Amino acid sequence: MPARFRPEDHLRKQADFDRVYHARVYAADHVLVVNGDANGLARSRLGLSVSTKVGNAVVRNRWKRLIREAFRLSREQMPTGIDLIVRPQKAAAADFAAVCRSLPALACRIAKRLERGRVQGSGFRVREEKGTGDRGQESGGKR
Question: How far is CA 71 from CA 46, 77, 113, 120, 138, in A?
Answer without folding.
Answer: 8, 10, 20, 29, 51
